[in-house]
Structure formats: structure tokens, C-alpha cells
Amino acid sequence: MDYRVLQSIAQLISKEISKVLVNVENEVKIMFATFLANGHVLVEGFPGLAKTSLVKAFARTLGLSFGRVQFTPDLLPSDITGSLVFNPRVGDFEVRLGPIFANVVLADEINRAPPKVQSALLEAMQEGQVTIGGRSYQLPRPFMVIATQNPIELEGTYPLPEAQLDRFMIRIRLGYPNEDVELRIANDIDLGDVTPVNTVLSKEDIINMQLLMRKVYVDDSIIRYIVNIVRATRNVHDIKLGASPRAAQVLSKLVRAWALINGRDYVIPDDVKQLTPYVLNHRIITIGDDPFRIISEILEKVPTPIMAKALGKGYNNE
Ligand SMILES: Nc1ncnc2c1ncn2[C@@H]1O[C@H](COP(=O)(O)OP(=O)(O)OP(=O)(O)O)[C@@H](O)[C@H]1O
Ligand SMILES: [Mg+2]
């Protein structure tokens, strides 16, 4: 597979999803990058901003198995992971794997279930396996969790603790649409969900795409830039707790995917600038302020590298 194919695959995915959703191109693109980088996504937004629809449409285009768990106050960990059930025919217990055993898992309204249930999901995400009745079961690969949550602390919700937010590679915030977009949404009503979203990828494509990630050239100056940005979050007055080294690790992985999706096999400083808000917004604790504003101020302050050396030696590092 040639790396240039990825850009057109990303465009195809966006095109399929735009059949059913308006103005989500950027979100789709970043979700796809996170998928390539083996990460998980948290989608936040007020009710009715198409969180669930977005994830469902995205999973469909990938052509992978899809699991969905609706988080509710009475959900049990085993409703996610699975359990042993008695089979009277065999006269013994057998395992019934839960909905987490799918390539793409929608954890819808994750903050509506108690912490014990949230931990069951996050543990499985971390370890890539689940224990049922004393035996371990590997989760399928690729494996991606996309969780949604409503950001306002409604009655009966359990906000995810900071340490657990960190498990999500990125957090996307869906905002209210502008007037033009809202007109299109209102006009575009799909009477009865008839528009099909087509699958654009095969499993083989996906494995090949993930291999391409290794061929992306990341200059030393880019890595230094990423580290400088992350370190800068620890020296800002409005930030109570800055980002950890894991943030730098995640960012340097995600920029590779972003470069590929943008038709390049090398990372440029702009990739870092575009992705930083998605990677950092849930990894810093700010003093009553909008994390996005603080992050963009940091991006303005940290000097952008000039990749003269990299340009000299050419980008292809095969
Ligand atoms: N950008 C958009 N393009 C097209 N339709 C949209 C868009 N935003 C919202 N809608 C429509 O609004 C409705 C709500 O979508 P959905 O159920 O996915 O929202 P949600 O964010 O999951 O809401 P909740 O938090 O209540 O679960 C859907 O019918 C969807 O088609
Ligand atoms: Mg929903």
C-alpha cells in the first residue's frame, strides 16, 4: 500500500458520513487519525449534537465489528465484559462474551454509569484483555473505544476522574452549529434513516495502513517541539496540573497518522499545532478557564521549529 492512498481513504470516509451528518468533516478526520494511531476517543457535547450518530456512522464506514453499550445507572461490569452462564444442555457454565468484544465499541453516555462500571471498561482498554470466571480473553484487534458524554454535570452522572480521562488519546468537543449549518441540519431531515453509509475499508487495508505509520518521518526538531509544548503546560499560571510525559508520547504518535491522512510521509510543525488541542484539552486541569484558549496561548509562545536539516536530507526514510 502506498502512503498516498490514505488521504483518499480519509476523504472517502468523510464523504460517506456527510451523507447523514452535516459539518463534521474535521471530527471524522481526527477520529480516523486516532484509529490509525491505536487510540481511543472521548466525544463530548450537549444533547442532540449528533454524538451517537457520528460514532455509529464512523464505525460503519470502517467495516469492522461494532459493539454498543448504553451506560445507565444500573449497568454492571459484566454487562460490558461478559459473564459465565449456565448451559442446561451441557450441564456446565460457558462464557458469554460481552459487547466489548468488537473492533469498534461505542460507550454511549459513559458518565451515566457508576465508577465501578467505568473502570471495567477502562481497564479492558488499557490491558487489551478481559478476565471472565478466572480466564483471560484477548480483545480483538484493531480495537477502538469511542465514548460519549454530556459535559454538564446533570443529576445522577458520574464524571470521569482525571486519571481515567488520560486513557483517551483525544477528546473532541462538539459545539453548537452556526446558523447556516443549523439550517442545513433542519433541512436535511432523513425521513426514516434511509441513507446508507457504505463501508470503505477492509481488514487487510487496515493492517496495511497501520504498517505505514512506521514509515512516517518525524524529525528530531518535531519531537523537541512536542516536548516543549507539553512541558510548557506545567509553567502556566492558569493551569493547576499540566500534562504528563504520556501526552508527548501520544502526540508524537498521532501526528504520524495526521501526516498520512494529509498526503505526506513526514510530519510538519503544523500537524503538531493542529492536534495539540485535541490531545491536551482533557489532560490539563485549568483554573476555571477554557482549556482551548490556554492551549492556543501556549502554541503561540512555544517557538515553531524550522526543519532545515530535515529538508536537506529529504524526507524518505525507508
Ligand atoms: N451536524 C448534524 N448533521 C445532521 N444531523 C444532525 C447534526 N447534529 C444533530 N443532528 C440530528 O440531531 C439528532 C440528534 O443526534 P444524536 O442522537 O446523535 O445526538 P446525541 O448528541 O447523541 O444526543 P444525546 O446526548 O441526547 O444522546 C439526530 O436526529 C441527528 O440527525
Ligand atoms: Mg446520544
Structural features, described:
The radius of gyration is 21 Å and the shape is globular. The protein folds into 2 domains: 5-198, Rossmann fold (3-Layer(aba) Sandwich); 216-310, Orthogonal Bundle (Helicase, Ruva Protein, domain 3), CATH 1.10.8. It is built from 13 helices and 11 strands. The chain is α/β, with parallel strands linked by helices. The structure holds adenosine-5'-triphosphate and magnesium ion (MG). Adenosine-5'-triphosphate binds at residues 21-24, 45, 47-53, 150, 185, 188.
Could you tell me the radius of gyration in angstroms?
21 Å
Please give the largest β-sheet: 5 strands, parallel
Tally of domains: 2
The third-level CATH topology of the largest domain is Rossmann fold
Using the coordinates above, name the CATH class of the largest domain: Alpha Beta
Helix-residue proportion: 40-55%
Q: What would CATH call the architecture of the largest domain?
A: 3-Layer(aba) Sandwich
Which descriptors apply to this entry?
318 residues, alpha/beta, Rossmann fold, Helicase, Ruva Protein, domain 3, 2 domains, five-stranded parallel beta sheet, two-stranded antiparallel ribbon, 13 helices, globular, binds adenosine-5'-triphosphate, binds magnesium ion
